[in-house]
Amino acid sequence: MKYAFFQGCHIPIRIEQYATATEAVFKKFGIELEEIREFNCCGYPIRNVDEKAYMLPSVRNIALAEKAGLDILVICNCCFASLQKAKHVLARDAQLKEELNLILAKEGLQYKGTCEIKHFLTVLHGEVSLETITINLVHKFNDFNISVIQGCHILRPREVTQFDDSFVPKITEDLLKVAGVNSLDWRGRLECCGAALAGINDELSHSLLTEKIEGAQQAGADYITPICSYCHLQFDTTQKNILTDKPESQLLPVILYPQLLGLCLGIDEKELGLSLNKTLQQGDIDKIKSLLGPPIEEKKKRKRKKKKEDEVPA
Amino acid sequence: MNVLIGLAVIVCLVGVIFRISTWFSQGIRPSVPSIPTGERISAAVSATLGILFSPKIIEVIKSFFLDILFQFRSFERSLLRWSAHFLIFSGFVLLIFTHVLTDADSTANPYIFLRNLFGLMALIGVGLAVYRRFSWKPLRLQTYPSDWAALILIAVIMVTGFMLEGTKISSFAVYQNMVEEYADVDEEEEIALEAYWVAKNGVQSPNVTKPFDPELIEQGFEVHENNCMDCHSSTRNAFASFTVSKIMGPITGSGAFAVGALTFLHIIAFVALLVWLPFNKMFHIVSAPVSLISRRIMGLKGDNTANILNRQMVGLSACTHCGSCSVECSAVMYFESFQNNFILPSEKIQFLKEIAAGKDLDATTLKKLQKGLYVCTSCDRCSSICPSGINLRDIFVSSRYALLEKGTPETSILSHFSFPLALAQKFTGDHLKALKAVEELFKSKFKSLTDLLGPMTLSKSKGVINRTYQSCYSCQRCTNICPVVRSYDNPGETLDMLPHQIIYALGIGNTDIAMGSQMIWSCSTCYLCQEHCPNQVELTDIFYSLKNGAINKIEEGEQ
Question: pTM of the prediction?
């Protein structure tokens, strides 16, 4: 199994660990992620300015993947939404499709719309499956309390992103549960991290972020797991930036999903790039690792299964 | 001729010194008083000394071999570009050592062979470079006349060189001159020698024709051994020129005129290259090595303002307009959408050189450049690709704010291109100032709700294609769930209009007031309102189209 790995603009230079950890996790399940160097920006940053200019870059990216005969695997929510949006719109607008294809034709590309856009969590949850993950677990977390922030653009609008139930998302929760992580119910779970307003209205952006940090901490979270790369940068970089003004506040460290799953799969912490998370100190890393226990639940299940099997003939 | 070459060398040297002086006198940076040249030179000198007398010297040596001689940065990205450049570079440099700087034994081995080899290498390199310019055109590689000129000039030098050597090989006049001047032979020996040179060394003589008499040639070889062989290896060693001589011979007659003319052309082309070198992209011969070494040592970092500016200028003068950055630029599709050349990094650089030199650009170009500088994903790909190791990120970020400081308000600042800038926390004051300018512009262009006096009229909403607002049934769920509205004590005042009010405004056909409201720019685009709307009003999508429309209206008004 092979996917075209779409990393977007931020991940390769700002959150390298998101890509390397994802690659390491997928390697465990025999899924290869191929980088296509010609991929360009997904279009998201220009959306406030021009809707058509927002769509064209994604259309080209999809055309590139189609040329390579691969489906696209995405880790950034905003990239994911942009690619899905382009597919969604072009499937309903033949005229626009023709117009954008004319631009692509200049470099010998053509958008057909056959390529599937998949979020990495969907692939883990669906194709890889929770059972396979469970079988491959080397460790499982105990008493590991995190708050997950799903990110807006993976969930909504649901008819475009088609990721999960946008009101009660299940995929991420299931995947956290498999790793033994205690994903807390908290009020910011489905809300905005403020990234979309950064540089446009910093004050508002910061207040939305602070609200999430405090919300997660009040719910009892020791760490936060952002799914989107923009959320990650808000919590891992902006949080540190604004904390310098508020020394009394407590830092909420970030750990990414592939990193915590990677630890459970026995992948080396260096390969997972834990130390590259700016908010994660060595002390945090040691603490997180100390929460790793044996994958007991699996044994219980086996026992139960055995019991059932024993019971049937009787 | 020698005088001409001497003059060219002087012009070249003066030019190079002038260009180097600009490294320490020019630069682009917003809201910083200019640093005196003396201070900038001393900053550069102390940084250089600091490196030379530290373990970092090993990095410098490594950089010399890996980055400068082997051109690893180019090798990593494109084999085609690397082959083209490496062949031109190595061919040219080696020719300088085996031909330009030494004329000794030019007709004997190994020089006679090496000169042909190196010349051919450079020529093949030029061929590959021309091929790249054509084949990468669909990938948006831009080529200027000066790019062609540089390639043509090098090709002319190489081709005239081969033609000249070829003509000298075949020319009977040249042969006769040589015999007269250097050979001590009687008439019989002269006939034998001529037969030998025609048969073996490609001289084309009216006196000797095929078939050759083997005895006479053997006799000729003895004469050749005694008179010529000390200085002349077989001309077949000049493999390229020897082939050319077969063509040149019949065309050039005795060759006397052709040799003179080709010598002139060959030297003139070289002189032209020398004189032109400091004032165009060929100056990278001087600046690219400096840029590459500083890149290896400092990466993209740097905190001394004087040295940041110095490095900027070295960088600007090290750009070869190779277009590698533009071909892989992540914002490349925005170039297609907006048809603005300045979105491509390689094109920005050409005009930033002029801005650094303090030249005034006309308002239209300036506005386009400003937009081009802003429509950038901050992915740093250009900086990591640049074969000359230029820190493009620093040049672009500095220029962005330097231009915004003087220029017109830039509406693209309201895009998510601002996100990485907020993250980096550089030039925060300048950023806020630029934002303020855009805000003022909006205030002057759009009426706000409180400006409206008298009765409102009903009409159709213009400029909004998404018609879902028509199904709003005023439940205000959107406003109630909005995290932005929740963030303010008095949201109505801060945001001008609340989400449901914007939909109402569209309902009565007042798009303008919706476009002018602070609400659309404070929308966090979280889509909660849209997802929760019981009547499928696509609020967030409508907000996006209002933002697009507002920017469009302002941009149109500007023109």
Answer: 0.93
